[in-house]
Amino acid sequence: MRAVLSAMPAFLRESMATMFQYRGEILLWAIWGVVYPAVAMAMWSAAVAGAPGGHEIGGYAPRDFAAYFWLTMVIGHICTAWDVYELGYLVQSGKLSPKLLRPVLPVWQSLADNIAYKVVSLGVLVPIWVLIVLLTRPQFGIDRHAATFAVPAILMAAMINYLWCYNLAMVAFWVTRMEAIGQGWFGAGLFFGGRLAPLSIMPEPLQKIASALPFKWVVYFPCEMLMGRLSDRAIWTGLGNQLAWVAFGLVVFCVMWRMGVKRYSAVGA
Amino acid sequence: MLRYLKLILLFTRVSVQDSAAYRTDFIAHVLVTLANFGAELVGLWTIFSNTRSLNGWGVFEMVALLGVFRMVSGLIGLTIAPNMRLIMDDIREGKLDFVILKPVNSQFFVSFRRVVVWRLADITLGILLVVIACVKMASSITAGHVFMFIAMLLAGGVIIYSFWLVLATLAFWLTRVNNMEMVFWNVFEAGRYPVDIYRPMIRRALTYIVPLAFITTFPAGALVGRTQLSGLALAVLFAVGSLAVASSFWRYGLRHYSGASA
Predict the structure, then answer these.
(1) How many domains does chain A have?
(2) Closest CA to B215 of B88, B119, B71, B117
(3) ipTM given for this complex
(4) Measured between CB atoms, does B45 come within 8 Å of chain A?
(5) In this complex, do B45 and A203 lie within 8 Å of one another by their Cβ atoms?
């Protein structure tokens, strides 16, 4: 534990410097996080006009959709994780080996990279987010209660996404092609996290599947909470679900890491 | 003319032989394509379980649009993107000299030399969707519509090729244009839905700056009877114009190429 505490500041400094060097690429990756919700926003606002009644879909008027997808933009960014690709590369190339020799797990350095990316890209993203608010004038319904729980909810959301992305990434110890798995992860995150559409307006079978997956608690739950659409009871249940997914994720992480590293070393990388 | 056709066949055959050596790769890509396709259909299901139309586009019109989107996605991934990527790489590494030395028109060679075979899956699925949409809307689709559709598609293909060629030619001056491809695919996502759903300014940008509308909304619109002959004429003019501009820009860039031994 002491090793982690003393290593993290160094990792963070290094990651911030690296991410700053790659600011061109970062701009492009960050744009993806904006384009997708922006397109969804435009699409659902147009869909409202064709809906029975023509004013709203499932309790969402165009301004509500604007608010919802703006929130998915911000929260989606805060919860980004990409280790499902990164770890596969490290395992394949053998570059994981020097990292295994350190007194701290490689996951801590990946975490530093993750945080650095999120911080450095804020420079370009915050102006874009503000611009979108000014252009679309979304309607937020947030209340004080939801605001108090926003921070723990978002923190846990980020932890859930990072943890489970890393858990899936560890499949790289057994499988050579992670690309398809990675695409599957991101695709599922879009659907079942409520980034294509709020989960409440998705077809029933999909909602059931979403309830069994962690994605719902990463983006959809915090967004609904920050829009003031959840009752107090729903907020507490949601936070409990998030805690459960974090705990479950930690257990799976420990088990998979031990098994994975054993296999990695056995293959003689 | 025949010579060029024979060369295209040769390039295709070589690419097929190349990918035959990596069969698992091919199968993996096709499976991912099918999964993406399934996801897109589920997306359409989600939309139309909540609304009857998207800016006047009903469910089978959207199916047609998705089909066109898939087809064009496949076409770009099949020849346009890989060849343009190769141009940018060759320029950066100074290998373009080998292209210039070949006894064929350089623009022809760099545009057709590579074929990414598994993208045919995308094109096939797209055609399948378009056919399904046509069957379901058989009462309102005439032969005239189909003719306009094919013409629009061809015009759109030429326009998007010219667009990419201009981007690739920029590599003669700016070396780090590789990320352009990623930006393109990101913006291309907006073509999934008819461009009329966006604000006027964005709609214009997606028509004249990045010619997305010409390859997705307009061809699909032509099929379902939303385009007049004047729209088709405009597209054809635009196609011819953009091809002329892109080709002369390529020749201009080639003249300024300093080569590997500069």
Answers:
(1) 1
(2) B71
(3) 0.83
(4) yes
(5) yes
